[in-house]
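FORM 7B - TANDEM STRUCTURE REPORT

SECTION 1: FIRST PROTEIN
SEQUENCE AND TOKENS:
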Amino acid sequence: MSTVHCNTVQTSSGGPVTLTKQSASKAWLNYIMDTPSVVGSFNIASVTDEGTGHFTQNFTNSMSAVDFLGCSSNNYPDSGSALNYSSGMRDSTTSTIGFKRENSGGAGSDLTVQGNGLAVFGDLA
């Protein structure tokens, strides 16, 4: 059996390789909502704060169509009480993904801790 060791895999022209027949996340983001401050990311160029609980993430490399899927997660501080919040996609394009986070009353809500994020699945352009 052979072992291949390398630090970087690129196309013959020096660019990134294309993922084919794979379901890997094409973008992800870990951020603090109320700032917003990016803690870590992949294929996210910037985050635009559209108001309390509403954000637009701008892709570095666009998706091929708007039929991609975005999944979110939120890191709730341990307050000792039940918290009812929902997150969902909104107003997405091939170059952006919009997300909203609302409390049980439907009002936008920001969290002040890191660990709030999203992962995007679909095909890159």
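SECTION 2: SECOND PROTEIN
SEQUENCE AND TOKENS:
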Amino acid sequence: MIIHTLKLLIFFAVSYSQMIIGSEVPAVSAGTLVTHQQFQSTHVIARDIYVWLPEGYTENSLYDVLYMHDGQALFDAKKTWNGQEWGVDETASKLISNGKVRPFIVVAITNTERRHSEYFPEEPWLSLSPAQRYDLLSRHRYGGNRIFEADIQSDAYLRFLVDELKPFIDQTYSVDSSREHTFIMGSSMGGLISIYAVSEYPEIFAGAACLSTHWAGIFDMQNNPIPAALNDYLQARLPTPGRHKIYFDHGTKGLDALYPPLQVEVDKIMIAKGYSDQDWSTIIQAGANHSENAWRDRLDLPLLFLLGK
């Protein structure tokens, strides 16, 4: 019974981002949200992009930019399947108005039905043997659907961000386009693609915040080669410390209960690479689960770490 209950919890926790009501535009209670519907790409399928602008946004100032994944879940609980949201507009507005962080805009990239395949780091995937990849592609969620909706597409997803979306944002909005003022953030699989982005494009992103990072890659640790492949990749490709900031965290309940031992191994790599408290943070939120409400409760921590004055 306990195992069955855990499986149900994991199924609902990891399915949330694909059950957002995508046809409705979110509303915000602070700042302004600009919608770019069905943003076209030559690399990945089209999706909506939401750009959040803080109160008092002006063309006379240059703003930092925070790219965030799972954009449907960031602003409006009335538009999500479970009535939860990150509360990005409220938390960001409070931190900016209190002078605790540099003024910034948020580029919210909505996910698609290919979310798992777009967010899974491709280089670690290719390091697996053909037999391992075949096995992983054949695995299913506890609800019956395949875990990977398509072949791995994260390199294409990052090319979309770097070669198509970022130039559009830089040209359309009053932002500082330099590396020092460009950041990326996500949770769960969004955490994986965020650490992958800063490792693949260290000249583009100055930092990444990875909340409840899904180091397991799938939802079963038995015969699972993914954590070792991710660790090998990080050992080889993490950007040089001192020029980038990296934030990790996790809770201890629900799906997050899988992460403590996996995060410990990643932390060992961070230490071996020479990261210090100035450019790396790992936070454990005891009792927190795998949900938008949990990420909302601690959203100020990664924002302060990446953008704090």
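SECTION 3: OBSERVATIONS ON SECOND PROTEIN
The first helix runs from residue 2 to 15.
The chain has eleven helices and eight strands.

SECTION 4: SIGNATURE
Preparer initials: ____
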